[in-house]
Amino acid sequence: MITRSTIAIALAAGCSLAAADTVVSYSYTDLNGSYDSLSQLFSASAENSADLASGGDVSSLIGDKGTAQFDTGFFGLGNADVSIQLEIFNITASSADANGIVSLTDVDGDTLTASVQGSWDILAPFGFMFFSGTSSDFEFTDNGDTDARFDGANGSFSIAELVDRVFDGAVSIILQSPGGFGGDFDGVSTQTDGILIPTPGAVVIAGMGVMGMAIRRRRN
Ligand SMILES: [Ca+2]
Ligand SMILES: [Ca+2]
């Protein structure tokens, strides 16, 4: 029988899952940020040139924990890449709205993708530009050989428990362009971060799993 204390344990376990939720985090620096005012398309891409040498990492905070490290100048190594494409609209001197796609690719072609929605703040006079957005569909895809790992230039982590699941997440982007979205720009050093958390439904299911375990333990 399910006692009140069993339910309390299960609820507490569910709450602790909710409080320590980040499953995966990532961070990249010195992407090539560009904006085309005609198409109102912003993009940020990995690059390795005299002007910009992108670097970054993607980390798993669950299971066997690990970090796929993309050392500065990684672009050109296998399939490793970063691509952000955002449609920009409702543009003012100090703000804009945006939606689009974020895609991170590991060395052998596996991806972490999301569609994001959010808004930009643009601060005069320097044109510091801050994007904050959210996603409800972060997904890992194990392309090509099923190697079940997200591989950096150095280091990797298991995606065996992450594929075929959908995560909520948050994305930030920061760069500096004095004209904001008032005109074209290209080759602007762009930084981006993101975190993934289980969807609320997944937390409930995890909590029920804990409850089921507690019930089974009582029966044994
Ligand atoms: Ca693969
Ligand atoms: Ca891989």
Architecture blueprint of SSEs:
Elements lengths: L3 H16 L4 E13 L4 E5 L9 E6 L5 E5 L10 E9 L5 E11 L5 E13 L4 E14 L7 E3 L4 E3 L8 E10 L8 E14 L1 H20 L1
Helix pairs in contact: 1-2
The chain binds calcium ion (2 copies).
Structure description:
There is one protein chain. This protein has 220 residues and is of the alpha+beta class. It has one domain. 16% of the residues lie in helices and 48% in strands. It is globular. The two termini are 12 Å apart. The N terminus is likely disordered. Bound molecules: calcium ion (2 copies). The site of one calcium ion (CA) has 8 residues, from loops.
What is the β-strand count? 12
Query: Which small-molecule ligands are present, each listed once?
Result: calcium ion
Read across the widest sheet, the strand sequence of neighbours is 1-2-5-6-7-8-11-12
Name the poorly predicted regions. 1-19, 210-215
Helix-strand string? HEEEEEEEEEEEEH
Short description:
This protein has helices spanning 4-19, 200-219; strands spanning 24-36, 41-45, 55-60, 66-70, 81-89, 95-105, 111-123, 128-141, 149-151, 156-158, 167-176, 185-198.
Q: Which terms would index this structure?
A:
two-stranded antiparallel sheet, 48% strand, globular, disordered N terminus, binds calcium ion
